[in-house]
TrEMBL record:
<keyword id="KW-0456">Lyase</keyword>
<dbReference type="InterPro" id="IPR004443">
    <property type="entry name" value="YjeF_N_dom"/>
</dbReference>
<comment type="subunit">
    <text>Homotetramer.</text>
</comment>
<dbReference type="InterPro" id="IPR030677">
    <property type="entry name" value="Nnr"/>
</dbReference>
<comment type="similarity">
    <text>Belongs to the NnrE/AIBP family.</text>
</comment>
<dbReference type="GO" id="GO:0005524">
    <property type="term" value="F:ATP binding"/>
</dbReference>
<keyword id="KW-0413">Isomerase</keyword>
<comment type="function">
    <text>Catalyzes the epimerization of the S- and R-forms of NAD(P)HX, a damaged form of NAD(P)H that is a result of enzymatic or heat-dependent hydration. This is a prerequisite for the S-specific NAD(P)H-hydrate dehydratase to allow the repair of both epimers of NAD(P)HX.</text>
</comment>
<protein>
    <recommendedName>
        <fullName>Bifunctional NAD(P)H-hydrate repair enzyme</fullName>
        <ecNumber>4.2.1.136</ecNumber>
        <ecNumber>5.1.99.6</ecNumber>
    </recommendedName>
</protein>
<keyword id="KW-0630">Potassium</keyword>
<keyword id="KW-0511">Multifunctional enzyme</keyword>
<dbReference type="GO" id="GO:0052855">
    <property type="term" value="F:ADP-dependent NAD(P)H-hydrate dehydratase activity"/>
</dbReference>
<feature type="binding site">
    <location>
        <position position="124"/>
    </location>
    <ligand>
        <name>K(+)</name>
    </ligand>
</feature>
<dbReference type="InterPro" id="IPR017953">
    <property type="entry name" value="Carbohydrate_kinase_pred_CS"/>
</dbReference>
<dbReference type="InterPro" id="IPR036652">
    <property type="entry name" value="YjeF_N_dom_sf"/>
</dbReference>
<dbReference type="InterPro" id="IPR000631">
    <property type="entry name" value="CARKD"/>
</dbReference>
<dbReference type="GO" id="GO:0046872">
    <property type="term" value="F:metal ion binding"/>
</dbReference>
Length: 494
């Protein structure tokens, strides 16, 4: 696949830290000094006008990194205020040494008493990667005051309060402008709630050798828009439409014809050779007028759908399908036909009502649909999006695209992939219909199912970002993605 960024769980990064100490001979104190220095360089480069630096230090090694940064900043003539929660004394030798060095340099530690000094930038060095619970009351109050200061925050490793593995915060969390992840990127920084609080995520290896992903298998991968060319090679000069597949879009119950139209046009804009629509008779004229390139058929029952299924390469079912008898009949026929499927929207709701494995399918649920498919709440899905996506893949024996901030793509026996693109403007009705068409088109163009899901989700998200750059995120429409889908689906032309 593409040149993806490997992501790791906190326990894996701790093991890397231990190997650096035990096998590479890099003392823990040296790693802490490197971390503090890297963070200080990033702070100075990001906020060059800042002269007053606030550092909130906790009792662990994350706090030790903060003490190192504070000492370096003070040595360069900056005004530095170090604040610590009451009783948060360093517990380990490297952090104790960092605190001692800070004090020997003339620095002092202020015990947080509910008030904070006036600073230009805050450094969050309270918890780091070890927290999997809500912060204590004392720390909660400190975080509240830092967030309320409206000063930019640099978080060391992860924003304090955030679970480094899941990207979920069980309580209050520091709202960072920048996060510097040490040694390796943590998987929780790239999905769910984390995307609200970690800002721009950077990674510093602390001068350790590059990660060998064969020896250090990642827990997940991150793909970004620069990776699109790995899946979207230029076509040969003698290409014909039959080589690029035929997507059949099934949906458009009465009053919902726009959804299936979006799906069909997305498939066409992503380069499928042929796109057909199976919809209610009442919607045919409007669909033909709106998008004549899509072959639109009146289908009132599963018998009328059968010949269309026979001609299709891939079937996308769900946009505007409804959950009535018509939708159930068409979904049943599509699942039974044995063709590769993309299931979205009401197809997922119908599947949740009558669960069964669909190994030929790519499922594209949002968190609410994922909760129904798993029999859990939306909040439970969002609390661990990696676990939810993997559970869906296992239960339904399918490829799963769990949509949301940091979309997660999972499949049985595959390392999950996180989509490092997309924006809040895409949280609007119809975006999922476009995604269904994009994924179906790439599947029809002979990408394997998992790769089609990853590339489709990435292309869709990148097109959303490109559209948002034109006029902003608020008010973004699904159809705004179409010209950008076409451009980004042709990386050689960009």
């Amino acid at each position: 696949m593409a040149d993806m960024l490997p992501l790791y769980r906190a326990a894996q990064v701790r093991a890397m830290d231990r190997r650096a100490i035990e096998q590479l001979g890099v003392p823990a104190w040296e790693l802490m000094q490197r971390a503090g220095a890297a963070a200080w360089r990033l702070l100075r480069g990001s906020w060059p006008q800042a002269r007053r630096i606030g550092v909130a230090c906790g009792p662990g090694n994350n706090g030790g990194d903060g003490y190192v940064l504070a000492r370096l900043a003070r040595a360069e003539g900056f005004e530095v205020h170090v604040v610590s929660p009451p009783g948060a004394h360093p517990r380990r030798d490297p952090a104790r040494k960092a605190l001692a060095a800070w004090r020997e340099a003339g620095g002092r530690v202020e015990s947080f008493d509910g008030m904070l000094p006036e600073v230009d930038v805050w450094v969050d060095a309270i918890y780091g990667i070890g927290l999997a619970r809500a912060p204590s009351d004392a720390v909660r109050s400190l975080i509240e005051r830092i967030n309320a200061s409206h000063r930019p925050v640099l978080a060391l490793d992860v924003p304090s309060g955030l679970d480094a593995d899941t990207g979920h915060a069980p309580g209050i969390v520091v709202e960072a402008r920048l996060t510097l992840s040490f040694i390796a990127p943590k998987q929780g920084l790239y999905t769910g709630m984390a995307r609200d609080v970690d800002g721009d995520v950077r990674v510093d290896r602390l001068d350790l050798p590059p990660i060998d992903t064969t020896a250090e298998p990642p827990s997940a991968w991150l793909v970004r828009d620069t990776d699109l060319s790995a899946w979207l090679a230029p076509r040969h000069a003698n290409a014909h439409k039959g080589e690029h597949g035929h997507v059949l879009c099934v949906g458009g119950e009465l009053g919902m014809g726009g959804a299936v139209r979006l799906c069909a046009e997305a498939a066409l804009r992503t380069g499928v050779g042929l796109a057909s629509v199976a919809t209610r008779s009442a919607g045919v004229a409007a669909l033909v007028a709106a998008r004549p390139e899509a072959m639109t058929h009146a289908v009132e029952d599963s018998a009328a759908l059968a010949p269309l299924l026979g001609r299709a390469t891939v079937v996308a079912v769900g946009p505007g399908l409804g959950q009535g008898a018509w939708g159930r009949a068409l979904l049943g026929a599509a699942v039974a036909c044995g063709k590769p499927l993309v299931l979205d929207a009401d197809a997922l709701n119908l599947l949740a009502a009558a669960p069964r494995p669909v190994p030929q399918a790519i499922l594209t649920p949002h968190p609410g649909e994922a909760g129904r498919l798993l029999g859990m709440s939306t909040a439970d899905v969002q609390a661990d999006r990696y676990a939810a996506a993997s559970a869906l893949a296992t239960r339904y024996q399918a490829v799963v695209v769990l949509k949301g901030a940091g979309t997660v793509v999972a499949a049985p026996a595959r390392v999950p992939v996180v989509i490092g693109a997309g924006n809040p403007g895409m949280a609007t009705g119809g975006m999922g219909d476009v995604l269904s068409g994009v994924v179906a088109a790439l599947l029809a163009q002979h990408l394997p199912p998992f790769e089609a899901a990853v590339a489709g989700a990435l292309l869709h998200a990148a097109a959303g970002d490109a559209a948002a750059r034109v006029d902003g995120e608020r008010g973004l429409l699904p159809s705004d993605l179409f010209p950008h889908l076409r451009r980004l689906a042709n990386p050689a032309w960009n």
